[in-house]
Amino acid sequence: MNQEPLSMAVQLAGCEYRFACQPSEREELLDAARYLDLKMREIRDHGGNTLNAQAIAVMAALNLSHELLRQQCQWTEAESLVKNQVRDLLQKVDAALSLDTPTSV
Asked: Which Pfam families match (predicted)?
């Protein structure tokens, strides 16, 4: 069942932004806004004082995109490693089971 969108406001680097969202998404979006606000403030506080809000937002978006892509790469590598380990274990199980199989006379 579709719920009516909620109107909500968030603070990002001292500026208020309003948007609508589904009630079920509210908490996750607030968490995302808090994280983005933290990243934008870090950029501003570490030499970005001369940048406008748009430039800080673009830099934060680029940094977060880089973080996401790096995380996806790490997950892909970990997934591949786990698949290889599972395959190796299955081969060992198959080998052990074939040793225990009685032969008929």
From this structure: ZapA (PF05164)
Buried residues in 66-79 as b, exposed as e (16+ CB within 10 A): eeeeeeeeeeeeee
Compute the distance between CA of residue 79 and CA of residue 4 in angstroms, rounded to an integer.
39
**Per-residue pLDDT tens for 31-80?**
999 999 999 999 999 876 788 888 999 999 999 999 999 999 999 999 99
Three-state DSSP state, 103: coil
Task: Say how far apart CA 76 and CA 37 lie, in whole Å.
Answer: 29
CA 99 to chain centre: 45
- 68: tokens are 């996401």
Looking at this protein, which amino acid is placed at residue 64?
Answer: L
CB atoms within 10 A of CB 44: 19
DSSP label at residue 51: S
Strand locations in the chain (E): 6-12, 15-21
